[in-house]
Here is the input.
Amino acid sequence: MSSNYLSHLNQVATFMKVPPGKLTLGINNVPMHSHEGKTHRGFLNILYSYLPHSTKNLAGETSEEKAELYQWLEYSLIYVSQSPLHYLSEINEFLTTRTYFVAQTLTIADVLLYYILYNVMENLTYLEKEKYINLSRWFDNMQQNPELRQKNKLVDFNTNYLAAISPARH
Amino acid sequence: MPVIYTNESNPAGLKLIISAKFGSVNYQVKIIESADKTVPAPRVLPYVETDRETVIFSSNAGAQYFYPNKEVDSTNSVQQWLDFEVYELAQSLALVIGGSSKVQKIKDILSSSLKLLNDKLKEGAPLNGKTIEVCDIAVWSALYPLHNDKKMSKEYLEPYPDILNWMTHFTENTFVKEALAEFKILDALTSYQALLIGAKYTAVNIKSSTEVATANPDVVSPEELKSAEEAFKKTLNNLPKPKKEVHPILPVAGEKNVLITSALPYVNNVPHLGNIIGCVLSSDVFARFSRLCNWNTLLIGGTDEYGTATETKALEEGLTPQQICDKYFEIHNNIYRWFNIGFDYFGRTTTPEQTRLVQDMFITLNNNGFMQTQPVEQLLCEKCNRYLADRFVEGGCPHPGCNYEDARGDQCDGCGKLVNSTELKNPRCKVCRTAPVKRTSKQFFLDLPKLEPLLHHWMEKSSQGWTNNAKVISKSWMKEGLKPRCITRDLKWGVPVPLDGYRDKVFYVWFDAPLGYVSMTSKYTKDWEKWWRPAKETDITLFQFMAKDNVPFHSVMFPATLLGANKGYTLVSHIMATEYLNYEDGKFSKSRGVGVFGTDAQETGIPSDVWRFYLLYVRPEGQDSSFSWVDLATKNNSELLNNLGNFVNRALVFTEKFFGSTVPAMNLTEEDLTVLALCTRELKSYVASLEKAKLRDGIRYILAISKHGNQYMQSTQPWVLLKRTDDDKQRAGTVVGVCVNIACLLATLMLPYMPDSSRALKAQLNAPPETNILTPDNPEIVMFLPEGHKIGKPAPLFSKIEPAQVEEMKKKFGGQQSDKPSAVSGDVSALEKAIQEQGDKVRVLKSSGSPKTTWQPEVAILLDLKKKLEAAQKAVPASAPTSVSGDVATLEKAVQEQGEKVRSLKSSGVPKATWQPEVTILLDLKKKLEAAQKAAPASAPSSGSDDVASLEKAVQEQGEKVRSLKSSGVPKATWQPEVTILLDLKKKLEAAQKSTVTASPSTNGVAIADVNEIQCAIDKQALLVRQLKEGGAAKSEWSPQVTILLDLKAKLAAATGQPSTGGKKSKK
Here is the structure.
């Protein structure tokens, strides 16, 4: 399974201003976390262990939102992070009517997906970015937050070039 | 009422129903097909639609929604088991049973998940130890179809009695019974197929563990551990013996034979660092590697000596061309010898062998019909009374679209295209600047169009092994279509054409120089044809190293010549071309005295190994790179000294001190095997990249191995273990033994790069010469130095390069501008104006979209002007220091603003060319600020002293941050910036301390007279620290002593006004 888990966890923790703790891969390549004597096993478990320590409110409000949040995290883990390219169109479709994945505010799901998708988005051509226009909009929105972006570069969503190809939409 | 949509017999659907019952939620179940069009994205089943029409498509999210977990314990065990269910259990069940996956890794995951669960249930149910929670429901539901299927249950669950018990017990629960009555679960196969189809798990999801291993820097797979263990059981006896060097070296049929050439430098240029790394040094490193692999290796190099330039130079110096060549040949030879370039033969083109070969080759080609004569217009400079060689004519580039004014007669530096000297616009003689006249004479042409099909066919096959730039350049040549190429000239200094009527002409470099490789080989051995015209059964691989400007010679001209001769000549299979090396972001220039030339390197006092290391570290592979003094010092101090040198020295010193210079017994544990496996991985990468002559990468793998070694030593702490029980002592012995063996491996790997240091280290290790061997087919780490091996006397391999030294070098080789500041100093305003004008010009050019080559020279002029201005400005403040000190605040503001600008430019993703000038301005400002600050503190010492405390605090905090980041194992990229901040803070602190001390010497009790005393104290303290550290004291013990030491050093620095030399001098 993807070894990027650990770096993604790290990035999320950094964004949340929470100590990431000691992160390793254990049996079945399940991420393990230990911090101040406490250990956590499992990717989502580790993410959820960060949440209460963060001053940011990223966990969703209602029980419905919490369930939605959980499902996107699980989805990121089980599906997207394995082969991000395969899920771009699905995510793009979902984002047609949304600004964020859960409710109307930034949650840890957006944060995690930003990190998981960064490498893919960075390498998309302008035409592909056009194809996944909703995803691109969401991603561009995410990356405007310097704390979230951390050391990542801004991915360019220049539309000048596209305007020449498909003027109607720009 | 929430609706649960699920396909039939899906255990995840069952999970939702049971959860809803536990949570006392009313619900409705709708059975649909997975292919149903109404399933919302991402089209997985089951999903829950809530009252507010929100879709929840994760069954665990839905289950928690129905039956939330109320209490969170310290390890959050409910969440942990939910993770377990979705990530390990359900996926592997669906794939192995539902998808009949035969992938062993997935089967392994299933069985280890079941074992994990069984171990947990042995301690008792439920999973969080208190109440039945959603995780119990999830895990149980996932397993229920398996448990319910008699045959499958026997096959999979029999070894796990605790799971079986728990499953049976759970089935008794009322809610579960009700759910099972409502929702039918069929046999295991059907159910897990339903799960698989519903969830759309794909086999991609579980990659094999080896893939993980290569991707993850710190995880080693069991296979890797196993092979590391097996390898370390072997000794030198299991390795092939290095071949004895027999001269002459000749190829052997059935073995790997490697012929290596280095582009022939032109004799009367003293080579600069760029020339050296481009061909000779690269070829040498590769040859040494090739010899390590026991391949029959011949490295040929030499100087190219014919041509007009030599003639001119001879006239200048009043010597014959041959005398000039002899003189410069010695210079070249000495430089390469100093750089430890181990040519098997270093020859020259002015030999009878060359004459014979070139003439023979010409006659062969002429007989084969690949020669033609054409009348050629040549440029004659009447003032100089001679025909002008291509390089001696300059004029406007004839290519449309390129308006470069100073194109040379053979090639335009503006657009890079080849030029015929007679086509230049407004040609002029380079020497006297008068316009030459055209004269016509008959010349020989190599008929490349006739050879093109042969060449094309060969290139298709051969170019696989070339560097990318070589491929691109050659392809563009072929694409434009080959034209006949003139190979003779009306000159005197060269190989004469052996045909009546043409005997007053000589061959041109295009034809003559590459054949030098062959003639030099023939000078080396009379059996040269074994290398260049091998027998059928002998395989010769020819590697040619050069900078990219030489590619057409080696990819078109030389192969075309050899192919046309049709005598079975060895053709190049690997053209290894580098890009250019710049000097401190500018070009090397002999005339302006900019840059380091071969002869200078020796005078710097820096050992040739360090030069070799750094040049290879920045080898321009893939793109241009630049040489920088500061970087050289940094790489030397951080990589060679603190990483590599530190590791091998510690390994040896421990062996000497604690084990009587004898390699101790080794009983390997998993920890030891892990470091060996990690090093093996680096070793494999090292071999793989060197085989492709990716020399720059190879050096990084060496450093990675010593980094692993350092970490290993740091985590095992043998010096601590030695003070404990006998078992611990034995453990320390193992660690030291492994480290010594890794050091021996490092010495071998260093051999191509740093031959002197490698030999020195081998001598310190007392390692037998048989250790100088690599097995490229299966690189592994064997026990090079077994228990009982006596090592020699350890000594530091590298020494520190001080910043002061760097500054001195920078000034020395930075060009001539600094020599005449007085002429410039008055001109600040004039220069500023010139800069502005030039800047405008550049901007206009850039924005007009003309190619880089057009505006690049203008930029160079601009930068030049700026440098002059800087020099001028520097001269001014000296006369008016007061004006500067007042400006600190303004400057700070300017720096900040400029910094903002640069950041925003960079982050906006514009190309480097756009923001580079802004960065230059920023750096400029910073320098000014620094200068101003240096002047300022004297007037405001009090503020400085206040700052010391706050800075100290900041340094401490930042230090904490860095340490925690590093220890958390995040990638370097993450903590590197923090380290930069830390170093910055430390610098500031140092500066602050300095200013405080100078401002109030009495309070610190340090007067200038005390310098000697401080120095004494420092020496004593340093000795104490070293003894503590090497004696194996815990960090907490020596750390305060180090603080005292650093304190003392700071005081000394303050007292002498010299910067502190830092704590880590090489361990002497």
